[in-house]
Design goal:
Keywords: Coiled coil. By secondary structure, the protein is mostly helical. The protein has one domain. It is 84% helix and 0% strand. The longest helix is centred in the middle third of the chain and has 102 residues. It is rod-shaped.
Length: 136
């Protein structure tokens, strides 16, 4: 027949007042696994601390990698902006060149229209003169 054990009994409290686990020196607890549970909890706490340290290390590595990626993206962005600016300058130059050519063509068209108008007027004068010559 086993005896029941009370962790709150004065004998247990006096013998274990300075220990982390209230039943560290209690033979009943040793037999019933309380100390083993405390040891397991301590080992688990240590394991949890190591996992947390590894996770923090991993988080720092991830932060460093994100910073590296940001720098790389920034460099690529800068290069892309430079290429776009260069392309923009080239397109602007081409557009200005084409606009100048367009203006020249417009001026030439005006001159040609004027010449055609003058030639039409001369033709009318020749036709009038020819008609007058025929009438005479």
């Amino acid at each position: 027949m086993s005896t029941r054990h009370n962790h709150n009994s004065p004998t247990v409290q006096q013998s274990t007042a300075a220990t982390a686990h209230p039943s560290a020196f209690c033979s009943c607890c040793r037999e019933n696994g309380c100390i083993a549970a405390a040891d397991a909890q301590a080992k688990f706490d240590e394991f949890e601390k190591r996992i947390e340290a590894r996770f923090q290390s991993w988080e720092m590595q991830q932060d460093t990698f994100r910073e590296y990626q940001t720098i790389q993206l920034g460099d690529r962005y800068g290069e892309a902006i430079s290429r776009l600016q260069e392309d923009n300058q080239n397109l602007e130059w081409a557009l200005r060149s084409q606009y100048r050519e367009f203006q020249e063509l417009q001026e030439r068209e005006k001159r040609l229209v004027s010449e055609v108008d003058e030639l039409k007027e001369q033709l009318k004068q020749y036709q009038r003169a020819d008609e007058e010559d025929r009438k005479m």
